Amino acid sequence: GSLSTTSVVPNTELYNVRFGVSGHSSSSKFAYRFYANMSFMKNALYWYNISQIFFGVESADRNIWSLCGAVDYKPISQLLLTAQVKGMLYTNFASVEGAMPNVEALLRARYTHKKFTLGLSAELYGPTKWTYVQDYTLFLPETTLPVQRGVFEAPVSLDLSLYGDWHVSKTCTVFVEGNNLLGDVMPTYQWAFYRELGASFTVGVKVQF
């Protein structure tokens, strides 16, 4: 493929083939899921960075081969522990990097009481490679500097999150969420050069009528 010069891209078509097994222990305290997945994408979107400010997109085919394993464990009825790991291989047909990690992992704990819920999760993402284009003519139209092209690699990131809610009544719940709690220690990257800055918190009230 070639870098897109138009804002119009074709619709993405996705075809999946999956094989897997799942089960649980006789006491239902332990459950497992393992599967292999093959995804065939036509006109997939490949995002790339332009001068560390803008983003462009290229449309090309992409195949994804993945293996995933997950286990759930309930030591007591109110507590659910989950661990999951997923490995992926890509066949890219674009002229830019795929901007997707090869490894994703999840650890999660959730305690559910009739009056409140507490949750903790850690999501890990492997290194992610992005193509960037340095185009000096965007700001200096008369420049003779050539357009430069390279690869930016976002490092391994870990997103630590907390969740809690309190059921004040049958219709009213107070909740709090915290994300990216590791902040500068191990920041997450949603886009090339765009790291999440510090922890974020959300506090609110849910009312059901």
Structure description:
- The protein is mainly β and 209 residues long.
- It has no helices and 13 strands.
- The chain has strands at residues 13-24, 30-50, 54-76, 79-92, 103-112, 116-125, 128-134, 148-154, 157-167, 172-179, 189-191, 194-195, 200-207.
- The mean pLDDT is 92.
Helix content class:
under 10%
N→C terminal distance: 52 Å
Helix count from the secondary structure assignment: 0
What is the N-to-C order of secondary-structure elements (H for helix, E for strand)? EEEEEEEEEEEEE
Overall residue-averaged pLDDT value: 92
The parts where pLDDT drops under 50 for at least 5 residues are: none
- Quick one: biggest sheet? 11 strands, mixed
**What's the overall geometry?**
globular
Oligomer: single chain
- Strand percentage lies at over 45%
Structural class given helices, strands, pairing? mainly beta
Q: How many beta-strand segments?
A: 13
Q: Gyration radius, to the nearest Å?
A: 22 Å
Which keywords apply here?
single chain; 209 residues; mainly beta; eleven-stranded mixed beta sheet; two-stranded antiparallel sheet; 13 strands; 65% strand
In brief:
With 209 residues, this protein is mainly β. Helix content is 0%, strand content 65%.
Produce the secondary structure layout.
Elements: E1 13-24, E2 30-50, E3 54-76, E4 79-92, E5 103-112, E6 116-125, E7 128-134, E8 148-154, E9 157-167, E10 172-179, E11 189-191, E12 194-195, E13 200-207
Parallel strand pairs: 2-7
Antiparallel strand pairs: 1-2, 2-3, 3-4, 4-5, 5-6, 6-9, 7-8, 9-10, 10-13, 11-12
